[in-house]
Design a protein that fits this description.
CATH architecture: Alpha-Beta Barrel
Strand order of the largest sheet: 3-4-5-10-11-12-13-14
Bound molecules: flavin mononucleotide
CATH topology: TIM Barrel
Radius of gyration: 19 Å
CATH superfamily: Aldolase class I
Helix content: 25-40%
Shape: globular
Number of domains: 1
Oligomer: single chain
Structural class: alpha/beta
CATH class: Alpha Beta
Order of helices and strands: EEEHEHEEEEEHEHHEHEHEHEHH
Length: 362
């Protein structure tokens, strides 16, 4: 039987176990450059089979939250190289999550105070986060011109190239949670009449072109994608045709031979928004590695892996307070509870000061 604590081979690297640390924004880098604290935080958690970093902005325009590290400068690349060395020295593997928030931003976070960009001018009833100010209503976006899309895809490809130079084992395109790519996928946010709007194929074009740009630059075995089927995050309207989107995407993703597809269930309404029936359908249509995140514990993760619905189990909040989460789960030790007040911003407190299960420093 397949087991949570056994090694697993991705196309480009082998993981020590099937436990993955979820991408989690911690907003502690005002200069957007990863520092020694970033390296220490990820080193402490290298017992995960795979770490996916916090969302990393691919350009200044991509930003919707303050103090998040980027990958658009050589200085940022050098900062991340220290992080990947620390994780590799500790026996772990690490992918960078590449992020553009699209319309979910505020003019004060945008270059020259410009409007955020999206598929349309439809404003999100959602929030951007500005250090020292707090949550601000997302500003009215400007609709991207058809001829601007290649520049955005190039930003992702450039960030991916820097990620590989920085020693990352791969990159995960953030295609989830109502950010840029899901804004294009959603027929109620995307009202375009060009080749990026209308049919399912057109709405999925930007996502697939961005993946192809990453594949061209760093190779398919290093490219992954995160998606959140049926999410309503960031004011994404319900799409009763969402199943058609995924029926189209599954074979398109399969033929690209990606490192993995990461499905995120934010459970915003409390219950699962990725039903087990959907997982079965997607599993049948997509023959690569599948990750699932959202409210998992050891028991549920083992059930999903043993029943062959997923390959790798992703844990978010449990990794914040339990740097040695894999050891704790392996030995059925109690888990510490993270403090939500220190999730975003601040220093070492609630970041690198959570101890091991025996009380020793992580
Ligand atoms: C503090 C925090 C920050 C997060 N930041 C990101 C992010 O940058 N990118 C992303 O895709 N998801 C992000 N998420 C969602 C997590 O990756 C994960 O999907 C979610 O926490 C559900 O998993 P869990 O129930 O194991 O915590 C974040 C979650 C938390 C709690």
């Amino acid at each position: 039987m397949k087991h949570l604590f056994e090694p697993y081979s991705l196309p480009s690297t082998t993981l020590n176990n099937r436990v993955v640390m979820a991408p989690m924004t911690r907003a502690r880098r005002p200069d957007h450059v990863p520092g020694p604290d970033t390296a220490e935080y990820y080193r402490q958690r290298a017992g995960a089979g795979l770490i996916i970093t916090e969302g990393v902005f691919v350009s200044p325009q991509a930003q919707g939250y303050s103090d998040v590290p980027g990958l658009w400068t050589d200085e940022q690349r050098a900062g991340w190289a220290v992080v990947t060395d620390a994780v590799h020295d500790a026996g772990g593997r690490i992918f960078a999550q590449l992020w553009h928030v699209g319309r979910v931003s505020h003019t004060s976070l945008q270059p020259a105070g410009a409007a955020p960009v999206g598929p349309s001018t439809l404003q999100a009833q959602a929030h951007a986060w500005v250090q020292g100010v707090g949550f601000l209503d997302a500003s009215r976006p400007r609709a991207l011109g058809t001829d601007e899309i290649p520049r955005l895809t190039a930003d992702f490809a450039d960030a991916a190239a820097r990620a590989v130079q920085a020693g990352f084992d791969g990159v995960e395109l953030h295609g989830a949670h109502g950010f840029l790519f899901e804004q294009f996928l959603n027929p109620h946010v995307n009202d375009r009449t060009d080749r990026y709007g209308g049919s399912v194929e057109n709405r999925a074009r930007f996502l697939l072109e961005a993946l192809d740009a990453l594949i061209d630059r760093i190779g398919a075995q290093r490219v992954a994608v995160r998606l959140s089927p049926f999410t309503r995050a960031s004011d994404l309207p319900a799409d009763d045709q969402a199943e058609a989107v995924y029926a189209y995407l599954a074979p398109e993703l399969a033929r690209r031979h990606l490192a993995y597809v990461h499905l995120s269930d934010l459970r915003l309404g409390g219950a699962a928004d990725v039903p087990e029936d959907f997982l079965k359908t997607f599993r049948a249509a997509y023959d690569g590695t599948i990750l699932l995140a959202g409210g998992l514990d050891r028991t549920r993760a083992e059930e999903l892996i043993a029943s062959d619905l997923i390959d790798l189990a992703v844990f978010g909040r449990p990794f914040i307070a339990n740097p040695d989460l894999v050891e704790r789960m392996r030995h059925n030790l109690p888990l510490a509870t993270p403090d939500p007040d220190t999730f975003y911003g601040g220093g070492a407190v609630g970041y690198t000061d959570y101890p091991h299960h025996d009380g020793s420093a992580a």
